[in-house]
Amino acid sequence: FAAHSLKSTISDYAVSIFETSVRYQFYHVFALLSAGILYKDFSNKFIKWAGKFFIAGIILFCGSLYALTFIKGSVLPGYDWVGAITPFGGLFFSAGWVCLFVGILKNNS
């Protein structure tokens, strides 16, 4: 819904930033939900850290892209540095996936 209403007010580039943020948040909410469900049967520190990393990734990755969309839509010069936060969120997402898989494998050993 937001992407459709944004298309009439901001540039296509800003809309694509917004859509990327929504897509990654959507995927990682399910990853976070999976970590919570798996913690019941695979209760170890890796699964717990996976959940924490997914939350941090959502905040840093998606949050920075939402902020960047606002900045691009409002045409605020000098705030493009917010985009530099995004890769740190991606690292947290990757760390979350690694911890999730290690936590599952560690319990099966």
Question: What order do the helices and strands come in, and which of them pair?
Answer:
Elements: H1 2-6, H2 12-41, H3 45-74, H4 86-108
Helix pairs in contact: 2-3, 2-4, 3-4
Descriptive account of the structure:
The protein is mainly α and 109 residues long. 81% of the residues lie in helices and 0% in strands. It has four helices and no strands. α2 runs antiparallel to α3 (45-74) and α2 runs parallel beside α4. It starts with a helix and ends with a helix.
Give short descriptive properties of this protein.
mainly alpha, 81% helix, 4 helices, 109 residues
Ranges where pLDDT stays below 50 over 5 or more residues in a row are: none
Largest sheet: none
Helix content: over 70%
Structural class: mainly alpha
Q: How many strands appear in the DSSP assignment? A: 0
- Beta content: under 5%
The number of distinct helices, counting runs of at least 4 residues, comes to: 4
> What's the average pLDDT?
91
| Amino- and carboxy-terminal Cα gap | 45 Å
Rough shape?
Answer: elongated
Radius of gyration: 16 Å
- The helix-strand sequence is HHHH
